[in-house]
């Protein structure tokens, strides 16, 4: 960094005192010796950039200088040009190290860097003080990461606003072109892929997979394959392996695409694959199962590799229920559509809200036909403002007329909603909340979901059985159709993947006894015997496999195989009914389970599986902040074989979709920018975005929708005020 010379006051600037001035004889210039010509003016300090540049005097009219390190030529050589361009070249552009750049690296800036308190919460624990220096390469890499993470177009770096920002915030940063950004993205993708590939090879990681298909606006099919695993630190990880173009949605095509991807990554150990319920996926899973058998890496001969998407099944179950209450839902939907028809009507409704209930800034959003969660949220909000709708019907004459007007076909709109419609929607909304919360839990890809599957399915089945016994025919018919769809996928053990029962057993708060207790509440004794026998068989097969694997890794350690059977200390329970819809229906399961555990005595065995199943863990059940992965991390020395098993079982995903798309019955479509790129660049962008994201916060659908409501409310307030001013 160039040091400026200290300022020296010129003689004219020094104040002169007139006191004690003595008169002098007349000045005779002839008696003064003339100074040397070179001492007339003190010479300037030569810039340090000149030690790396040499002047080129070939053309005196257009002087130029050449970098000694890289032979780069610039216009310059006299005072008219200055040295700023030359200094910028040495600091940011010259490929060779030089004294200026070395000096600049020593110049650091202290910044506060946020640090996360853990993978579970993702919240900020505090800050670290870090010294950073300017680096052209680091700034360029950060710019590329910003474009990837924030899904910006490559043209963003050439826009005026970004250039203005950089000129103020970091004027030394040489902004890359969009072509350079494109090249840097591919380089980053290659480097990050190499790191991840080395991780899989080093740790011989077994993964569970999820796969989905996407469509671009040009109707080009893409397949995304995601690996889910629990790393050596017992943290849940999710990595997109590829986002490749496929010619069609046939099962054989999808299966071969998955196989090619696994070979490219060097992954042969696959535990389970979660797919949608399309028939083509059955063919794809069969193809992969055969390959795993050939590679001799299939666990239990691939018997449990196929996992159906639970969120998709819930969508199908809810869809049948919505059809039964369609008239009541449509009546409420039309009422909501009316109040959102114009800012003036919305303002009138907001006045009714203030008159009938406490002021609430949350407004009612119109639902989307392909997203049943939006229908639930619409009904939930509309029911809160029931009195406001009644008041609007009394005060607004256009409200009733809106429903009586006929369309071109001579049909009038369904509505306005009457008391029966509101009652039906209130009951259905309370029931739909169970599916809403279950779907949110199923879709959390950054947390363990395998152990929550059993809880949610039991809760949903219990509520459906309760409505089947309802006195109201419309609710009874709705529940009956939902039960038919539910039983189609989850009615018997042959249609379920029993690995998800094993996941509950590997939750130290519940284990086998809890599974049996819940099954006895929901199924007949014959069905319970069938399910428990299948679960026990699966558990023993898995334990035997991992015991052999543990023995191969640790030949010096002896392993005792388990010959355990299903515990039979659980009493038969019947008459399952949840009396209070507002309470967690699973509280009754757990309270009954507590009583059963209190009856158990001490159980001593040297067998690892039996010892785990019989060990009491009262403290874990009472811990509301229980972290199952942390528990297994601590207990891995106590139960080494089961810990190996838990690492793979708990990594299973019960859903193929993230929270933001779990409620949609429509297709997934790529945005216009990504659709305009070639397939290799699309894959680089999507994969890098997933790999670079360090935050482990799952998308909170409830909070997200509240934010949307807040924005919509602010927008409606602004629009309403503008409209009133225009009217006045």
From TrEMBL:
<dbReference type="GO" id="GO:0046983">
    <property type="term" value="F:protein dimerization activity"/>
</dbReference>
<dbReference type="InterPro" id="IPR052035">
    <property type="entry name" value="ZnF_BED_domain_contain"/>
</dbReference>
<dbReference type="GO" id="GO:0005634">
    <property type="term" value="C:nucleus"/>
</dbReference>
<dbReference type="GO" id="GO:0003677">
    <property type="term" value="F:DNA binding"/>
</dbReference>
<dbReference type="InterPro" id="IPR012337">
    <property type="entry name" value="RNaseH-like_sf"/>
</dbReference>
<feature type="region of interest" description="Disordered">
    <location>
        <begin position="1"/>
        <end position="56"/>
    </location>
</feature>
<dbReference type="GO" id="GO:0008270">
    <property type="term" value="F:zinc ion binding"/>
</dbReference>
<dbReference type="InterPro" id="IPR003656">
    <property type="entry name" value="Znf_BED"/>
</dbReference>
<keyword id="KW-0804">Transcription</keyword>
<comment type="subunit">
    <text>Homodimer.</text>
</comment>
<dbReference type="InterPro" id="IPR008906">
    <property type="entry name" value="HATC_C_dom"/>
</dbReference>
<protein>
    <recommendedName>
        <fullName>BED-type domain-containing protein</fullName>
    </recommendedName>
</protein>
<feature type="domain" description="BED-type">
    <location>
        <begin position="44"/>
        <end position="101"/>
    </location>
</feature>
<keyword id="KW-0539">Nucleus</keyword>
<dbReference type="Pfam" id="PF14372">
    <property type="entry name" value="hAT-like_RNase-H"/>
</dbReference>
<dbReference type="InterPro" id="IPR036236">
    <property type="entry name" value="Znf_C2H2_sf"/>
</dbReference>
<keyword id="KW-0805">Transcription regulation</keyword>
<keyword id="KW-0863">Zinc-finger</keyword>
<dbReference type="InterPro" id="IPR025525">
    <property type="entry name" value="hAT-like_transposase_RNase-H"/>
</dbReference>
<dbReference type="Pfam" id="PF05699">
    <property type="entry name" value="Dimer_Tnp_hAT"/>
</dbReference>
<keyword id="KW-0479">Metal-binding</keyword>
<keyword id="KW-0238">DNA-binding</keyword>
<keyword id="KW-0862">Zinc</keyword>
<dbReference type="Pfam" id="PF02892">
    <property type="entry name" value="zf-BED"/>
</dbReference>
């Amino acid at each position: 960094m160039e040091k400026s010379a200290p300022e020296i006051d010129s003689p004219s600037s020094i104040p002169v005192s007139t006191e004690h001035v003595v008169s002098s004889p007349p000045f005779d210039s002839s008696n003064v010796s003339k100074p040397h010509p070179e001492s007339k003016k003190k010479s300037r300090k030569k810039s340090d950039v000149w030690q790396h540049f040499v002047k080129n005097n070939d053309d005196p009219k257009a002087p130029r200088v050449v970098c000694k390190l890289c032979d780069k030529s610039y216009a310059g050589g006299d005072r008219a040009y200055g040295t700023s361009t030359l200094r910028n070249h040495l600091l940011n552009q010259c490929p060779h190290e030089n004294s200026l750049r070395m000096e600049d690296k020593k110049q650091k800036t202290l910044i506060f860097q946020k640090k996360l308190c853990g993978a579970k919460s993702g919240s900020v624990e505090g800050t670290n003080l870090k010294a950073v220096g300017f680096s052209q390469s680091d700034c360029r890499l950060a710019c590329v990461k910003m474009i990837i993470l924030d899904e910006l177009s490559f043209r963003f770096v050439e826009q005026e606003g970004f250039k203005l920002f950089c000129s103020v915030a970091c004027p030394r940063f040489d902004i890359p072109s969009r072509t350079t950004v494109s090249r840097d993205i591919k380089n980053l993708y290659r480097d990050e892929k190499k790191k991840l590939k080395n991780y899989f090879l080093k740790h011989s990681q077994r993964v569970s997979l999820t796969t989905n298909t996407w469509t671009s606006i040009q109707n080009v099919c893409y397949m995304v394959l995601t690996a889910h695993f629990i790393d050596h630190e017992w943290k849940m990880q999710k990595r997109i392996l590829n986002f490749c173009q496929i010619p069609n949605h046939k099962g054989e095509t999808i299966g071969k695409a998955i196989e090619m991807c696994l070979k490219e990554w060097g992954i042969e150990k696959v535990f389970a694959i979660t797919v949608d319920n399309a028939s083509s996926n059955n063919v794809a899973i069969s193809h992969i199962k055969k390959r795993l058998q050939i590679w001799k890496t299939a666990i239990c001969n691939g018997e449990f590799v196929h996992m159906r998407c639970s969120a998709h099944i819930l969508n199908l179950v809810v869809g049948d229920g919505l059809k039964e209450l369609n008239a009541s839902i449509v009546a409420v939907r039309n009422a909501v559509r009316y109040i959102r028809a114009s800012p003036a009507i919305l303002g009138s409704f907001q006045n009714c809200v203030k008159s009938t209930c406490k002021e609430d800034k949350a407004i009612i959003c119109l639902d989307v036909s392909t997203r049943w969660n939006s229908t639930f949220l619409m009904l939930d909000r509309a029911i809160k403002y029931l009195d406001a709708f009644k008041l609007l019907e009394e005060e607004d004459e256009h409200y009733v007329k809106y429903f009586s007007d006929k369309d071109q076909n001579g049909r009038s709109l369904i509505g306005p909603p009457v008391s029966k419609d509101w009652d039906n929607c209130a009951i259905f909304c309370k029931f739909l909340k169970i599916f809403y919360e279950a779907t949110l839990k199923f879709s959390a890809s950054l947390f363990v979901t395998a152990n929550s599957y059993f809880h949610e399915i039991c809760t949903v089945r219990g509520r459906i059985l309760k409505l089947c016994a309802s006195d109201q025919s419309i609710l009874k018919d709705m529940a009956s159709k939902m039960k038919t769809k539910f039983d189609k996928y989850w009615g018997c053990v042959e249609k379920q993947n029993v690995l998800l029962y094993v996941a509950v057993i590997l939750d130290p708060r519940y284990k086998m006894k809890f599974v049996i207790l819940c099954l006895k509440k929901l199924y007949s004794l014959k069905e319970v015997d069938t399910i428990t026998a299948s679960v026990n068989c699966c558990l023993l097969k898995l334990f035997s496999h991992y015991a052999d694997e543990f023995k191969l890794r640790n030949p010096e350690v002896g392993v005792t195989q388990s010959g355990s059977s299903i515990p039979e200390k659980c009493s038969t329970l019947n008459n399952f009914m949840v009396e209070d819809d507002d309470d967690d229906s699973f509280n009754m399961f757990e309270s009954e389970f507590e009583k059963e555990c209190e009856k158990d005595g001490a159980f001593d065995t040297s067998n690892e599986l039996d010892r785990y199943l019989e060990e009491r863990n009262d403290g874990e059940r009472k811990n509301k902040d229980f972290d199952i992965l942390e528990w297994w991390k601590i207990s891995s020395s106590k139960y080494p074989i089961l810990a190996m098993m838990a690492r793979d079982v708990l990594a299973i995903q019960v859903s193929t979709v993230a929270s933001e798309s779990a409620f949609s019955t429509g297709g997934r479509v790529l945005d216009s920018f990504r659709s305009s790129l070639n397939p290799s660049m699309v894959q680089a962008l999507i994969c890098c975005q997933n790999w670079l994201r360090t935050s482990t916060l799952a998308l909170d659908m409830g909070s997200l929708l509240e934010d949307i409501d807040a924005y919509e409310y602010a927008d409606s307030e602004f629009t309403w005020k503008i409209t009133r001013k225009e009217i006045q």
